[in-house]
Amino acid sequence: MRQAAMAKGMDLVDCARLFALTSIAGNDALVAVFDAKYHYNLWRPITAIRNADLTSNPATPRDPSWLPLGETPMHPEYPCAHCITSAAISTVLQSVVGDFGEFSLTSSTAPGVTRKWSRLQDYSDEVSNARIWAGFHYRFSTEVGKDMGRKIGALTVATQLRGVEAMAEPKR
To answer: How far apart are the C-alpha atoms of 69 and 46, rounded to whole Å?
Structure first.
């Protein structure tokens, strides 16, 4: 958000609005995703792969020793929480700021690792792919999460902190 605001030369008021809108969208996304996770209560890939014999699906062979690349979160799988929040915030940024050139994030858990993107969509897609490649999510969960996030981001921009002009009565 800071990189977008700096690239566009936003003033203090516009920066405050941008930061508030991304916070609103991100928090609404978290509420929505955890409500959905505990409603659907879908098992994670580690459980599905280790217990594939219980599904009677010959397309999924059982591997009782399979491990994901990282420690699996201890809440239900569907939909993807990282995906919904990244898509919600990306949608707000795209709606408010638009394209703003290259931006980057530095990992707090992998020292020295910095990722760079030139499009918000690429960032959101990479978040989704990383969750699949790590073994935490299924593709459909990431797609549903991104779709939910885009809708939440768009609704946030359309209904929150719209400014005096947007709330004024239409002229007749």
So the answer is: 11
